[in-house]
Amino acid sequence: MNISTVSAAHPEGVDEALQGASDAVREALAVTLRGCDELLPVADWVRKLRRSEATGQPLRIKLGLDPTAPDIHLGHTVVLNKMRQLQDLGHTVIFLIGDFTSLIGDPSGRNATRPPLTPEQIQANAETYYRQASLVLDPARTEIRYNSEWSDALGARGMIQLAAKYTVARMMERDDFTKRFKAGTPISIHEFLYPLMQGYDSVALKSDLELGGTDQKFNLLMGRHLQQEYGQEPQCILTMPLLEGLDGVEKMSKSKGNYIGITEDANTMFAKVLSISDELMWRWYPLLSFRSMAEIERLQQEVAQGRNPKEVKVLLAREITARFHGAAAAEAAQQDFELRSRGGVPDQIPEVTLSGAPMGIGVLLKSAGLAPSTSEANRLIDGGGVRIDGGVVSDKGLKLSAGTYVVQVGKRKFARVTLV
Questions:
Q1: Staple partner for 387: which of 113, 115, 338, 408, CB 3.0–4.6 Å?
Q2: Is 254 annotated as a binding residue?
Q3: pLDDT tens readout for residues 77-91
């Protein structure tokens, strides 16, 4: 797989826009394009960068997130990483929490109406979102806004005036709306309001650039349209790829179980990164690593010339783990992983005391929190994934007498169980 420093197309007009541009502007464009799916229009963005350099006025860069769940995983950090890169260039980053739009529910990519959240859920999730996002963004240089600030103030009259800025025919060009309409799946009128309200956020914030996943392109373009309707210079839009999860197939999602939460403990985070395929590693590097593209390409060349890809994967695992837990925790996580790989027992494992000796192995695993059920415990035993004091357990009918045992399930779950 070839890693390119520029993944977006090089459209007509950008060379003209770059004529006479400084090295700083050219570098800013390269940073913007790194790992992105699409930047529209590139020539407009170059002009904005040149104007910012000439006037000393930072550009306003917007990312809107609806707090639909309390936790952020690595997939969410793809756009956050890009925001941080642009923030480090000196531009103003606006972390927009969609507390109003969450009441509608984003229909993007949905084949059914999304159930809205309660205000209490939204507030709780929003607080968690920003606290976790601050692990990537620089809080001192981040403007935090809630779109209820201007959306609530619109009122019924303002909403009708806003709705007059777009047509039903244009709205039905959305792929998800078209599919649902053809399939006879209901589309509620309030779902048409979602892209309008997200677009109006760009008007309220006077956004120069809005970021989002590839599934957000329609909503991002709505911002450009509405800014023009309201007499503003239209924003540029930057879409980022949807990060593939641990399986290397589906996009990272908690519901699919293929995710790495950014608040997971350091040992788990490190081990999960190490579990991805070599191919997936090269797709993750440009999107999750802060190493330069030149350095990433050098690492790829070294692997092509015979370097063990696991060594390069360890570098990525350490970088990601250190970002959220610190360098010392990342080093300790690597040591823990290597110890477990050699069949060793970590220095610190949970201590559990159970009564009821003699106890069947399935019940013990469930009671010690090492398996969710006895049936799952039996499945783990059948797969050779259970060890007691280093020996593999193959007998599902095993009963353990009183004593203390080191019990291991898989590569990462341990407990010192005292049975009385």
A1: 408
A2: yes
A3: 999 999 999 999 999
- Return the structure tokens found at 277: 């395929």
Classify the C-alpha dihedral 170-174-177-178 as positive or negative. Answer: positive
Residue with token string 């909503």: 219
> Residue 93's Cα: distance from chain center in Å?
18
pTM of the predicted model as reported, rounded to 2 decimal places = 0.73
User: Which amino acid does the sequence have at 10?
Assistant: H
- The SS3 call for residue 268 is helix
Spatial distance between the Cα atoms of 323 and 289, rounded to a whole number of angstroms: 10
Which tens digit of pLDDT belongs to each residue from 129-173?
888 888 899 988 899 899 999 999 998 898 889 888 888 888 888
Nearest of 103, 95, 237, 215 to residue 159 by alpha carbon: 103
Residue 361 or residue 343, greater confidence:
361
Ordered domains of the chain (ranges, CATH):
58-240 (3.40.50.620), 266-341 (1.10.240.10), 351-419 (3.10.290.10)
